[in-house]
Structure prediction request, 212 residues.
Amino acid sequence: MKQIARGVPVLAAAALLLATVPRPAAAMGPMSGTVRIAEMGRLVSPESCLGCARAADPVACHRTALSLAMSHDWARAIAIEENVHRVRPADAEITAVLARMYQEGTRNIQRAVELYHEALAISPGYPPALLGLGVMMEQSGDTNVAALYFKRGARERPDEPQFKARLAEVLVKAGRDDEAQPILGEIVSRWPGSKEADAARKMMPNTALARP
Prediction:
């Protein structure tokens, strides 16, 4: 984590550059928590969440903010999630979700960086925060720092291909093919039918595919 910490000043310096880089909302996959909205109960009105924050149900308001974000109603989603964050400042998921709303919605990169690191302070190695920071570094062109975040994410989630695929991709972009090849091979062998395996096959040179 010391290596990652040394990259923090780079994040701040890259904020202005990142603000000009287009970031499709789907680039990072589903926002943390959105896949569970339907299972978590009914939503509450945005107005009730925007009123007295401490009088509102923070869990219900978090669901509402996620729903608004999925509809790209970023202003209300962020306003509600900021209220929830004030009530539950030690919740890593809420903090990271709010960071991503700033990252993808209003492109307030400085605030997103601050919140992602706050989530990591709450829960060291928290995967959504590592993913967000890694994606921002990759988009700024700093593939070496991005690789550190994705490598840490792969250690935190060894049974999922997403971080390994992103790590391999930035290593290839950085010209570090020798490091990327075994990762690509692992993705193809462990998750053969996944979209990550399809992407890995496209990145692997024909000579690598032909090796026993």
